Amino acid sequence: MSKSVKHLAIINVNDEYGTPPFLFLEAxxxxxxxxxxxxxxxxxxxxxxxxYTKEDKVFEMDWTSNGFLNPPYSIIKKxxxxxxxxxxxxNIELLILTYNKTDTKWWHSYVEGKAEVHFHNVRxxxxxxxxxxxxxxxxxxxxxxxxxSKPTIKAQVQTMFPNWKKYxxxx
Length: 171
Prior knowledge:
The chain is an alpha/beta fold and 171 residues long. The protein has helices at 3-13, 21-31, 76-90, 105-110, 157-160, 164-167, and strands at 37-38, 50-51, 67-69, 94-99, 116-119, 142-147. It contains six helices and six strands. A six-stranded mixed β-sheet has the order 2-1-3-4-6-5, with helices on one face.
């Protein structure tokens, strides 16, 4: 049986793996990302001070802060749809670590042409559900997917035309 088939069998039993903190910090620095919330975490595996677990029902809330995601592979399509929609709706930056299945519908619907992608150069040894490093590396390559927030430009008319009230409407 191939490693991928074995891994898929394991996912049906346990789908909670954490990102090693050093890897998260390295990615934040390398890609200039500033996540403040870990949207798919556990009490043992979170890389931001503020985090949500599966009990927090993240699919039902608005995501308004820059965040990090290392989502369960079993619900990847649902997660990527939510992440993309929240990024567009709230102009937030999201740093996502997931497997690089470029031949899937979710990749083409929510990543290709819509996000910045960086492929990780080695297979990752994730943390288990207790926060301890696993012995085996992931059976797939991984990718960092980044939805960047768009800069906003705010100009105050009063600053540009300090006497606008005195002269009334400009032509």
